[in-house]
């Protein structure tokens, strides 16, 4: 009953926020590449100042490393900013937009996380409470920042950690092996590229959302990821949504998945519980 009451309260608040089209408060360049400048789309909590040490989350859009837009996570960003987090939707290079391969996507994701941590003081962010999140291939990038040792941008200061302290993953690409997603594009380096095959002890607490009828990410893959994390002493909350297909989190189950994401950060102590 308690969880039901929280969800009802949350849905009412989320419906009111969704009425307006979200717009970021700031667009800040974080990286210059041979293919052009990349920016962070930042949503700030009310009365945010550099003196504050708010938790933060960096979102990576989906699109198969081929295309996509940071606006995919504007609604989630607005909600979490309203709740007290600095929410950031990151640009990164894609095949259609920049002519790059999936390795560039991971390099940019790592660069975004490092830039946010290095500039935490001016953004009013707690550098020890930065989460990564994303959907589909963006979920892969978020998980990659937490698990992969390779694919750092040459010349970048790797003494600044790119690793998040939490992960929120929406129908994420976990497995890039022969039976996983995108193997034909990453075959020559898949073992270093696949989060499933690079999980180690110390991976951050993670929440995962997946539809049972996802035609790209089998339920068994998510269950295996959860099992490996837990075998290494980690936390992985897996939420399966019956009969939902790929991308459901921004469609039929947007409010429900956002409510669970909110509660996940409450459980970590990053957000205060919603008032009933």
UniProtKB/TrEMBL annotation:
InterPro entries: AB_hydrolase_fold, BD-FAE-like_dom, Dienelactn_hydro, GDXG_lipolytic_enzyme. GO terms for molecular function: triacylglycerol lipase activity. This is Acetylxylan esterase. Keywords: Hydrolase, Signal. Residues 40-153 form the BD-FAE-like domain. Gene3D superfamilies: alpha/beta hydrolase. Residues 1-18 form the signal peptide. It comes from the Bacteria. It holds the Pfam family DLH. The keyword S-adenosyl-L-methionine does not apply. Belongs to the 'GDXG' lipolytic enzyme family. Residues 195-254 form the Dienelactone hydrolase domain. It comes from Pontiella sulfatireligans.
